[in-house]
Specification:
Number of helices: 12
Helix content: 40-55%
Radius of gyration: 26 Å
Structural class: alpha/beta
Number of strands: 8
Distance between the termini: 32 Å
Largest sheet: 8 strands, mixed
Shape: elongated
Strand content: 15-25%
Strand order of the largest sheet: 7-5-6-4-1-2-3-8
Bound molecules: uridine-5'-diphosphate, magnesium ion
């Protein structure tokens, strides 16, 4: 009887990408299990992704999976980045609903309760959190992030909610749709929006990390922002073509002006500095746009190669067999 009852319970999978999170993991585990105990009507699965951590993260996960059957982990052969971690989690999660959460407690575990209720009662496919005030970001990161959201809103047809976090609870249909998007250059915030489905947005102020430091430095963030643009907008290519066209038109008009001027007043040799400046400017613009085309081409190159998004080295299942 008891078994039958258990079978009918819905399951929530909590996917947690972890990179050097030895300090935050025990705190996160304690908090999330508290919530799991409170939510009696659902089963839980905690799927941790060890993204090539260099600290004690893997050992902590091994220990947790030994003492708690709900804990699973996938350990990568090296650091593949948070995007790879999220993909591995979504692909391997077995729950009816899947939540993605950071290990650093910036995504408060108690929110899972509200998110699940909203999905069940209000009929959403997904409940996602956004923190548009970017509290806790440095002034420079705040400034660039705000600029980035304004830019992407203009140049991409896939809407991006300002301050959207990766923290969200999704139903099985949405998860399957995301897993089916197997692109190598992943920008999940765009992918979540691209697949559609009804999403409820909840605004909150993300607290600071409980321990450890952010795993995203300026360059990593810059590459991530560029990834978002390259993956979800081809506007830079269009702009480069338009500007190229404008330069051609200007050159054509200049040629006519110069011919007429030479015919009327002859050709006094002057103006080479301005000519040198123009040559420098135009070749600069050409190189810049070649660079933009190159960036798209390099992404295309990587897509065509179909490299794996992540490589697994160890999971809790193998460890259990070893024993
Ligand atoms: N993370 C990861 N791989 C990476 C970088 C980060 O799995 O290469 C994880 C990290 O362990 C954390 C989450 O992604 O659980 C968010 O990272 P972090 O809190 O450092 O980013 P921030 O909140 O500063 O944007
Ligand atoms: Mg964080």
């Amino acid at each position: 009887m008891k078994k039958e009852n258990k079978k009918t319970l819905e399951k929530i999978s909590i996917v947690v990408p972890c990179y050097n999170e030895e300090e935050t993991l025990p705190i996160f585990y304690e908090e999330i299990t508290k919530i799991a105990t409170e939510m009696k009507k659902v089963e839980f699965e905690f799927l941790f992704i060890n993204d090539g951590s260099k600290d004690n993260t893997l050992n902590i996960l091994r220990e947790l999976s030994k003492k708690d059957k709900r804990v699973r982990y996938i350990s990568f052969s090296r650091n593949f980045g948070k995007e790879g971690g999220m993909y591995a989690g979504l692909e391997n999660a077995t729950g009816d609903y899947v939540a993605i959460m950071d290990a650093d407690m910036q995504d408060p575990p108690e929110m899972v309760k509200t998110m699940y209720e909203d999905i069940k009662e209000e009929g959403y496919d997904c409940v996602a959190l956004c923190s548009p005030n970017h509290k806790g970001y440095s002034p420079v990161r705040k400034l660039f992030t705000n600029w980035w959201y304004k830019l992407i809103a203009k140049i991409s047809s896939t809407p991006q909610v300002p301050g959207a976090r990766d923290f969200r609870l999704m139903n099985r249909k949405m998860v399957d749709a995301i897993v089916n998007m197997k692109e190598y250059n992943r920008y999940s915030k765009g992918i979540f929006s691209f697949v559609g489905f009804n999403t409820k947005w909840i605004e909150y102020e993300a607290p600071d990390r409980v321990a450890g430091t952010s795993k995203f430095n300026f360059w990593k963030l810059f590459r991530y922002a560029l990834e978002g643009i390259l993956a979800f907008s081809t506007t830079p290519l269009v702009i480069s073509a338009i500007i190229g066209l404008i330069f051609c038109l200007i050159a054509f008009i200049l040629v006519i002006v110069i011919i007429i001027k030479t015919l009327i007043i002859g050709d006094p040799v002057s103006g080479w500095p301005s000519l040198a400046c123009m040559i420098m400017f135009v070749s600069g613009v050409q190189l810049f746009f070649l660079g933009i085309i190159g960036m798209y081409l390099s992404k295309l190159y990587l897509e065509v190669k179909k490299r794996p998004i992540y490589i697994t080295k160890e999971t809790e299942k193998e460890k259990k067999k070893e024993k």
